Structures are given as C-alpha cells and as structure tokens.
Amino acid sequence: MGERPVVTPSAGITPVQQMLASGTGALLTSVFVTPLDVVKIRLQAQQTPFYQGKCFLYCNGLMDHIYVCQYGASCTSWYKTPTHFSGTLDAFVKITRNEGVRSLWSGLPPTLVMAVPATVIYFTCYDQLRDLLRYGMGFQGNYIPLVAGGLARLGAVSVISPLELVRTKMQSQKLTYSELRVCIRSSVAQDGWLSLWRGWGPTVLRDVPFSALYWFNYELVKAQLCDQYDVSQATFSISFTAGAFSGAVAAIMTLPFDVVKTRRQIQLGEMETLGVPVKNHTSTWHIMRGIWAESGYRGLFAGFLPRVIKVAPACAVMISTYEFGKIFFQKMNLDREQQAC
C-alpha cells in the first residue's frame, strides 16, 4: 500500500508542544484506567490474600509498577482490607459506597510521577524519530513506524528502569533519600552500574515488540480509515478506532512476554523486599519454558481477556488525546502566524 501524500504529521508544532499533548493524554489515560486496575487488584486479593512483603503489579494504563504490601492485609491507604465482591460491577459499587469515589483512584499520584514523564519521552521520541527517518533521511515504507516505535520504547524503558528500582526500594525498605543514596552506592559497588537496570531485559522483551507492532498497525489502520472517509488528517474518532484496534492486536501478540515479565517483576520485587541476593536470577526464556511445561500455551496466554480489555481502551484514549492535542497546537500556531502577518 502506498504512502499517503500528506504533510509531516508533526509539522507546525514544537517538541515542547508535543510533550504537552502527550502529557495531557497520559493524565487522561491514567484517570480512565486506574479504577479498572484498582478493582482488578481488590478482586485478586480476595482470591489470594496478600501477606507482608508480597508484591503485586499496579498499572495505570501507561506502565506497570511494582507495589510492595508491607502490612499484610492492610497495605496502607493504597490497599484496604477488602469486603467480599461478587464481581467487577459489585466491586465498583461497594468500593464507591463504603470507601468513597476517591478510593478508585488510590495509588495514582505516586505512579504518575514516573508514568507521565515516561509517556512524554516515548511519544515525543516516536514522532521525532519517525519524522527524521521519513522526512529527514528520506526513507519510505510502512516499516518506518515499526522501527521508530521500537527505538522510542527502548529509550523510554532505559530511562525509567532505574527510577522504578529506586521507587521499589523506597517502598519496601522505607528509606529516606539519604539512606537511599547509600543503598544505591552499595548496590553499585557490589554489582556494578548494571544493577540499576535489573529487570530491564524482560521489560524490553515485552514493551519494545508491543510498541513496534502498535505503531505499525496504528499508522496503517489510520491511513486506511483516512482513505475510506476521504480526509487528509485523522479525526478524533479515526485515531480512537485505530488506537484501540492496534493496542488489542499488539497486546495479544506480546501476551506471553507480558506473563513472563509479570512473574519476573514480582520475583525481583519480593527478593528486594526480603533482602535475598538476586545475582543469579532465572532467565526470561527459562521462565517461559517452565510455564509451557506446566500449563502449555494456555499458561503463556493467561489473562488474555483482562489484558485486552485494559490495553485497547487505554491505547485508544492515549493516542486520540495525543493526536487531538497536536492538531490543537497546529491550529493555534497557524492562527498566531496569520495574526502576525
């Protein structure tokens, strides 16, 4: 399929404006998805109660975060002792009625500290790399979003990975900033600088393919929908539809890596909490072979429906808000130029 002869997608806006658009999208996505994950964790805890030192994953629609349950059944205000829930809708109703609406967004502020910057880096880098490859270096073809998406995600994961490790240490060991500095120095002296990127590999194995597939499908579907509706620029509904479809496809295709990454993250978090050395950890491929031996392909695709239900709308909200923000800034800058003339 040929490329659409349209203007540069990021033409007319600055990198700062791209950051503002992606930051707004990140906030809205988090606000939309966080209640779904809070309910999921509460239902999960009902089946398997959390014990002191146990870790679980929290996701605000943008990225995963390890959370350490420090006090058993009462994991601070983030997680309260659950009443019995008969299902998802019942959980929404009872949490809202008994604990207040704000409880559905518990745990959101701390995760936004990293999630928003990570998303800003990721989306801005993607646009810059795509435009550089396509318009700066003259490369053509549908593979451009694939390459730009993978590289942008690799960069974002590499920047955020040490911060996530630091955050987990602060949660699990209740360290002050001065104590944290000593702890990090000790870790670096013992295991080297690479110890700050512990858990980076499994994250990259899931997130980079997901990002590459997502952007490849998004740009393709968006172009096809623009052709179908005879528009030169994607509307909000086109971006939303393309984002949801692309997110669902990428989520399904990378689900085995997500299962392995979740198990790996929780293992690392609990080792950190218990003070167990994590030098000789099990490799990602070894974990995957173990899951296959235990449960077959069903084990590698565990959580299929919940992941798609969460990822697809999150991707749709994020990309449509981001595209809307870029169009807003393009129009604003164009109006300023016309007024200046």
UniProtKB/TrEMBL annotation:
Cellular component annotations (GO), alphabetically ordered: mitochondrial inner membrane
Residue ranges of Solcar repeats: 13-132, 140-224, 234-328
Transmembrane annotation, as ranges: 104-123, 143-166
Name of the molecule in the record: Mitochondrial glutathione transporter SLC25A39
Membrane topology, record value: Multi-pass membrane protein
Principal location class: mitochondrion
Source organism, top-level taxon: Eukaryota
Organism: Salvelinus namaycush (Lake trout)
Biological process annotations from GO: heme biosynthetic process; mitochondrial transmembrane transport
Family the UniProt entry places it in: Belongs to the mitochondrial carrier (TC 2.A.29) family.
GO MF terms, alphabetically ordered: 2 iron, 2 sulfur cluster binding; metal ion binding
Record keywords, A-Z: 2Fe-2S, Heme biosynthesis, Iron, Iron-sulfur, Membrane, Metal-binding, Mitochondrion, Mitochondrion inner membrane, Repeat, Transmembrane, Transmembrane helix, Transport
Pfam family, one: Mito_carr
Gene3D superfamilies found in the cross-reference section: Mitochondrial carrier domain
Catalytic activity, reaction form: glutathione(in) = glutathione(out)
Subcellular location: Mitochondrion inner membrane
